[in-house]
Amino acid sequence: xSLLTGQTAVITGGAQGLGYAIAERFVSEGARVxxxxxxxxxxxxxxxxxxxxxxxxxxxxxxxxxAEVTALIDxxxxxxxxxxxxxxxxxxxRDATLRKMTEEQFDEVIxxxxxxxWNGTKAAAAVxxxxxxGVIINMSSISGKVGLVGQTNYSAAKAGIVGLTKAAxxxxxxxxxxxxxxxxxxxRSAMTEALPQxxxxxxxxxxxxxxAGEPDEVAKVALFLASDLSSYMTGTTxxxxxxxxx
Length: 246
What we know:
By secondary structure, the protein is an alpha/beta fold.
């Protein structure tokens, strides 16, 4: 039997990048997934690649809106009979130095990452508490640990996710709900590969393992946290960084 056989997962930001890699890994381990993302067409295409409506459903969702996140989770319950795993992964960047960053750029990033994660945690917990079990995985970033230049908004949001994760883990443990976070480092993606070569090389030089990570290397850590392999873990933050900033 696979690690997630018969389980249902909701993944925000699931149309591409880390969210899609996590969905792909979960499906390969027997889960059914509901993908939430702003771009419905891209999300539907992702769901089709994962195997179609028997295993993957696409829902348009803005994580800043609690009602939309609740509707996303309701879709999982209605279509697949429940909710076992919630992955709060949706995110954006609006990088700028403190001097140049606008209030709108700051507020946008805080809203999507921090309020979005809070919305997902709150809505998922409301369903999971009825079953006295469930797993919530929140996507932080190494930027939330060390702070990166040009990311006062992003670093603040990602650090906040760690605090949110710890507080929620303490509140929900007695209900059988585990809440953990992942802090990826330099992971190969369309966004990071668009970096100028000299910046990419500089970032890679900071990684003791000497290379960027692959999306599936984050997805496998998400699988560990989602499965019973981590049954006695809650409130933790796992770094997936190749040793960068240890």
